[in-house]
Amino acid sequence: MSTENNGQPFFDDPNAALREIAQNPAAYAHYLADIHRVVLDVQAKLEILQRETRVHCRGTRVEGDKMGQAFLRSLPVEQSLNGILKNLKGISSGLEKSAHKRHAHDEKVNEVRAKRKEKKQLKAHKASPSLQAAPESSGQEGAQSPNPGYGGPTSIYNLPRRESA
After folding, report:
1. Which of 68, 84, 133, 143 could form a disulfide with 139 if both were Cys (CB 3.0 to 4.6 A apart)?
2. What's the pLDDT at 59?
3. How many CB atoms are closer than 10 A to CB 85?
């Protein structure tokens, strides 16, 4: 770690760059894509190494070997490489999922903000509704409206003539 003239470390916080990446979903996806490329490159090289190791180990025979003994000796080496490749494939898919989930997290946060803002506005509207002027009726009380039975004042005496809903 390099130091400046005053004895302070060059970087105050070594995790500051990763902290900024974690806060930005685009930078997060870009960083994970870089790591994903490295993992895929390592995976491809280990697959080649696996094939070459299998060919070498299975082809190495000792005098007096019976059928299949070279194969049995090569199994532990092959299984260890198979396990490593399986883990790398899991890491690769995990990196992809993590980038998608990070993006989904930001979308969900934005949705929650919008919903809360909308609920707050509805609550404020319910608490103090705007006053609306009552519609003025034209004509006299006894005049027929275009829709008889609705909209005008009714009494209990003319209920039977009213249409049902």
Report:
1. 143
2. 85
3. 16
- 31-57 pLDDT, tens digit per residue, is 999 999 999 999 999 999 999 999 998
- Which pTM was predicted? 0.57
Q: Rounded to an integer, what distance in angstroms lies between the CA atom of residue 4 and that of residue 51?
A: 50
pLDDT (average), residues 124-152 = 64
**CB under 8 Å to 1, separation ≥6 — which residues?**
9, 10, 11
